Amino acid sequence: MKNLLACGLLLAASAPVTAQTPEEPAEMEELTVTAHPLSAEGLAQAGLVVEGETLTRNLSANIGETLHRLPGVHNSSFGNAAGRPVIRGLSGPRVRIMEDRLDSLDVSVTSADHATTVDAFVADRIEVLKGPSTLLYGSGAIGGVVDVHTGRIPHDRPDELTGGIEARAEDSTEQVSTVGELDFGAGPMAFHVDGFYRDANDYDIPGCVESDELRAAEGGEACEEDGTLPGSELETWGGALGGSWIGERGFVGIAVSRYDSDYGLPGGHGHEHEEEEGEEHDEEEGNPTISLDQTRIDLEAGLENPFRGFSSANLRIAYNDYDHEEIEPDGEVATKFDNKAWDSRFELSHRELLEFTGSFGVQYSDKNFSAVGEEAFIEPVDTTAAALFWVGQRSFSRFDLETGVRLESVEHDPAIGGNEDFTVYSASLGFVVPFGNAWELGLQSDYSERAPVPEELYSDGPHLATQSYEIGNPDLDEEQAFNIAATLDYAGDDWYLSVSAYYTEFSDFIYQFATGEEEDELPVQQYDQEDATFYGLDMSGGFRAATFDGGSLWLNGMFDIVEAELDIDGNDNLPRIPPWRIGVGASLDWHRITARIDYLYVDEQDDVSEFELPTDDYEDLRIFISTHVPARFGKFELFVQGKNLTDDEQRYHTSFIKDFAPQPGRTFEGGIRMRF
Predict the structure, then answer these.
(1) What domain range is 85 assigned to?
(2) Is 378's pLDDT higher than 90?
(3) Fewer Cβ within 10 Å of end Cβ, the chain: N or C?
């Protein structure tokens, strides 16, 4: 049934990717532009916009891996299917994943092994805000935002039928992926259809499953190469149907989407269970799996010039019915997670008010979460959040100013125990100073607060994804952050540069520490609060090295580094902080051919927290080649690429299972894309 659905959608679908022209630089992701205050491109804040050939080249089975090679962005990686972005060392409840400006509404924040249901394969573009974004998106965005734009609710009537299809395959996992999209109109109506299917086996690895550091710590001997990573298989499919009525001044639309995924859990999940008689049985052969399904409904309405003094009004509402089962190797359902949630926001953009243009906004969300089973480490909880915000911008003769404020109330109502209420505030002030020829200096200062999430407050049980027994702290206070950042941008015809430096001081930073005790044969991790400091640097740039008949050659590079420490005596390192990276590359556009080579070096990470093992350095060499072939009824693109061509053992320090699950070895991928 899944295969039939995927094939049917492909016949009426397209890959939402745009091609770059030879005149465009190959890497122009780092942007700081003057835009609508509600745009993720922002004014003074460092932002990334990923689309076109860059998105095509980096597409992966999870959103974290898709964005992993961008400056300041890493992947929490939990096998092939699960991976959330880590932005400047911050992840989990501090980075908000969104779909078309509304929350993903899944339970990926709850645990690192829970996949996010926002799929990059159906993205038109992906916007990333690096740094506090609580003003617009709430306390869960204190570290940054990833917003995937899908176009599932049309805003304009297409003049003709448009769409296409894409199929790709790779050898490491024998993975086959298909995706498609179709847009068309009928009278005042506009419609959108998309669908995707992905199937992969366990992926190949270049060395051993367990790291050298882990085997040394356990007193083990050198191992034989394992060949593949058990538990890294996946099968994912989904699609959406959307439609809008479009008038002269606005639109109203709805989209219904489905997401289903069955995937394995690699690394360290083996454990013992107790029978009802109190006897223990041995762990089953194999790895546990997750069976996930989600139905989501999105509503959106927009109106231009709603009334005097206001330029536009926009209403977005999303409802999500989500559940997944964690299944033991013997087929027994160990734990079932359920999340029924909705998110809404209303934005009213005003014309000049005290010489500021901007937007007033209201946001409200409600999440009913439950976990039932022997591995449920948190009781059911209902979380509601309500917020008011305003953002505005004003242009002066020598600079532009952006500012805003937000007031948010968060309430957690657990099934056991009393309610927890938090009131959090955010404020921001930013400047953009243009100077010279195409130069811009952005300065940003933010004060943000974050309410603790239920996992931090109420956890009490074994959490096998983190290989620990987690204990929450109901006495946690709001987390506070003061951030300053400076971004220097240049975008010319023949070269570009983006440099962003940041410094963030956290008060009452929420973290886990090892108590030194054990529960259920697992080390106990307790939530607590201390002050913390994060600082670092992101850089990217490139220049046109040569121009010739029919094309040009660009050279580019990137660098990022982040440092993080707690204000405590003794070992003050925070866990899973990424090491510094440096990358160089070259991109050739010649007639209908695009060729790119990239080299990335990732340093070792030995500034580790207590009971955390260090990670070795590694290299990643990639090649991408594509050609565009015009056709009578559209445009074809053929592409091939090689990843990790040196077959280096790669372990992401940001991953909970880095010592049990290396990244794929040498991988070759090929695909075809057609647009019409």
Answers:
(1) 2-675
(2) no
(3) N
